[in-house]
C-alpha cells in the first residue's frame, strides 16, 4: 500500500503544480476538515476547496515553488478501510533546490473497489511556509 499511496500523493502534487485543481479536489470527501496553526477550516464542497487551493497555488508560485514530492513517514494499519498517513512534503524551486518541508497527517479511506483512497481529514503539523498560509484568506473561502 505505501507505494500505491505514494504514487497517489505524487499524482495529487503534480495536478496541484500544473493547476489541475479540479482533479485534486475529486480525491477528498466533503465536508473536509483541515487543521492548521490551531485553526479548523471546513470545506463543504469541492468548489470551496478549489478556491482555497487556487489561492495557495498562487502564493506557492510567488514563493518560487514549482514542484512538490511526498515522503510517507508512517502509515497506520487500516481498519475497515480507514487509516492515518503521516507525510512530509518537500517543496522545490525551478533550480530543484529544496525550499522547505511541510508535515501533514491525513485520515484516509480506501474502499476495496476504489483505485485510490479518499482523503477525509488534513492536519498540518508543521507548515514549511507559514507566511504563505498567513497571506491567504482561507477562512473566507471555507
Could you characterize what this model shows?
The longest helix is centred in the middle third of the chain and has 17 residues, at 46-62. The chain is an alpha+beta fold and 142 residues long. The chain starts with a helix and ends with a helix. A six-stranded mixed sheet has the order 2-1-6-5-4-3. Strand 5 (98-109) and strand 6 (118-126) form a beta hairpin. It is built from five helices and six strands, in the order ααββαββββαα. The radius of gyration is 14 Å and the shape is globular. The model has no long low-confidence stretch (mean pLDDT 89). The chain has a single domain (2-141), classed as Nuclear Transport Factor 2, Chain: A (Roll), CATH 3.10.450.
Key traits:
142 residues; alpha+beta; Nuclear Transport Factor 2, Chain: A; 6-stranded mixed beta sheet; 6 strands
In angstroms, what separates the terminal alpha carbons? 31 Å
Q: What fraction of the residues are assigned to beta strands by DSSP?
A: 35-45%
**Secondary-structure content class:** alpha+beta
SSE order, as H and E? Answer: HHEEHEEEEHH
